[in-house]
Amino acid sequence: MALAEIKPANIDHYEARVQLAAAFRWAVRLNLHEAVANHFSLAVSRDGCQFLINPNQRHFARIKASDLLLLDSNHPPAADDADAPDPTAWGLHGAMHRLCPHARCVLHVHSIYATVLASLKDSRLLPIDQNTAIFYDRYVIDENYGGLAFEEEGARCAAMFTDPKKQVMIMGNHGVLVLGDSVADAFNRLYYFERAAETYIKALQTGQELRVLPDALAHKVADEIDNYPSQAQKHFDELMAILDDERTDYRD
């Protein structure tokens, strides 16, 4: 029997859990994680209010499908509940799933190059190559960091996602927040944003003048990528296949 056909009994939203667990495992391999901090979430109800998220203070490398918490963004968990998420996980992701119905998958990390970009006074990602051009007019910059992402800070961030086309937030002095229609869509976007930020930061480090693409061309590239057939899903299918070849326990 194929690994994909093995389903533990009595686990709701199993396939969604497996996909999110795979994203955690790959975040570790790509060095996008940070100790036992940061959070990924995935809406599993039609209205987006019910969502899966990683348990409190669990390293991404150990997260399995069955570990993920199922929460409702309209019903805050009790602080003394054994299954309560990290308060910042609830503050940021609860707000996103409550206030942004289009945010089906929400990935928040302090990855190195995205965070360096977020630490610059000018945190724009200029289109200097194909990967940076992917994000032309596709991100918002939060310039009003207010501390740890408890509920007030989470609601403030969620309110900035007014344009469904813009699915990345460069969180000034903080990190990056990426949205997607699915785990595959969001993880692919996170992967390419970190790559694009790395290219941009390293280009700045040369001290040489940047070869910035004209706005019209950058816009064209971003539109072309938006309409490129199934790339995100095929990318993520391959990542899951690698995990399955190694028979890791992320599906448990």
Characterise this structure.
- The protein has 252 residues and is α+β, with helices and mostly antiparallel strands.
- The chain has a single domain (3-251), classed as Class II aldolase/adducin N-terminal domain (L-fuculose-1-phosphate Aldolase, 3-Layer(aba) Sandwich), CATH 3.40.225.
- The protein is 39% helix and 13% strand.
- The chain is built from eight helices and seven strands.
- Strands 3-2-1-4-7-6-5 form a seven-stranded mixed sheet, sandwiched between helices.
- The chain is globular, with a radius of gyration of 18 Å.
- Residues 1-5 have low confidence and may be disordered.
Q: What would CATH call the homologous superfamily? A: Class II aldolase/adducin N-terminal domain
Question: What's the helix-strand series?
Answer: HEEEHEHHEHEEHHH
Head-to-tail CA distance between termini = 15 Å
The helical percent reads: 25-40%
Q: How many strands appear in the DSSP assignment? A: 7
- With strands numbered from the N-terminus, the spatial order across the biggest sheet is 3-2-1-4-7-6-5
Sheet with the most strands, sense and barrel status: 7 strands, mixed
CATH topology label: L-fuculose-1-phosphate Aldolase
Shape: globular
Continuous helix count: 8
Unreliable stretches (pLDDT < 50, length at least 5) are 1-5
Overall radius of gyration: 18 Å
Structural class by SSE content: alpha+beta
CATH class category: Alpha Beta
CATH second-level architecture: 3-Layer(aba) Sandwich
Provide key terms for this protein.
L-fuculose-1-phosphate Aldolase; globular; 8 helices; disordered N terminus; 252 residues; single chain; alpha+beta
